[in-house]
Amino acid sequence: MKRMGIAVLVIGALVLVGCTSQGTTQNAVRQSAGTEQLSIADGLINMLKSQPLPRFSWSQLRQNLIEIESAQSITTQTTSFFFNMGVADPVQTCPSLGYPIASTTELSNPVQRLTDSGTNGGNGNVVIPQIDPNGVYAGQSTGTYVMCVDAQGRAYADYWEGFVQTVTGPAVWNAAKHAVELVGPPSFKFSTQKKG
To answer: Are 187 and 169 within 8 A, CB to CB?
Structure first.
């Protein structure tokens, strides 16, 4: 019985030492993490001072995006080519209107705005996606709608689940080069340099 009591005391002491050691280790890890975060923050501040982010008064990228959204929103004559994965030549081509539309693009936002008066711990600020300037919520899908134009100039929708390449202008497929070639002037004027 005396031996059992000694064994219990020894085990209890080892448990206490283990807990204290573990607590000390956890504190050391916490302090190290805090030190690492401060070091990273200091390094970032130094880099921003010596290598600041560039500032531009005008951006070609932004201008092109403005023009692409403009071309999407007006009647722009395009030509579309439909491809199957692993096949070099398109399976179909058509004169088209506008740009390909992902099959999941929507006119209304499927996300509902939730408001909370604060009774459940919420602050009422819920962020939802913003509508694009061209009036739609862009989707992500492998399915694509293309507004093709027939020989009489009538538009019809063509749905495709492969890759679609669309160019702003009349174009043909060059089978020898396996490439799209414009055969007329572009149907939308994109800027190539700063305006004004």
So the answer is: yes
| Alpha-carbon span 30 to 108, nearest angstrom | 47
> Domain segments of the chain: what residues?
1-55, 60-104+139-182
Distance of CA 113 to CAs 35, 87, 117, 126, 132, Å? Answer: 40, 44, 13, 7, 17
Residue 51 pairs in a beta bridge with: none
What is the percentage of the chain residues whose pLDDT exceeds 90?
Answer: 10
Enter the tokens of residue 25: 């280790």
Distance between CA 132 and CA 144 in Å, rounded? Answer: 18
Cβ pair 173, 158 in contact under 8 A:
no
Q: What is the pLDDT of residues 154-173, one digit of tens each?
A: 888 788 888 888 888 899 99
Query: Where is 14: in which H helix or E strand?
Result: helix 2-50
- Tens of pLDDT, residues 48-87: 889 888 888 888 778 877 888 888 888 888 999 999 888 8
How far is 60 from 55, CA to CA, in rounded Å? 13
Contact call for residues 132 and 70 (beta carbons, < 8 A) = no
User: pTM for the complete prediction?
Assistant: 0.53
Q: Which residue in 33, 55, 27, 29 sits closest to 41, CA to CA?
A: 33
- Residue whose token pair is 């398109």: 90
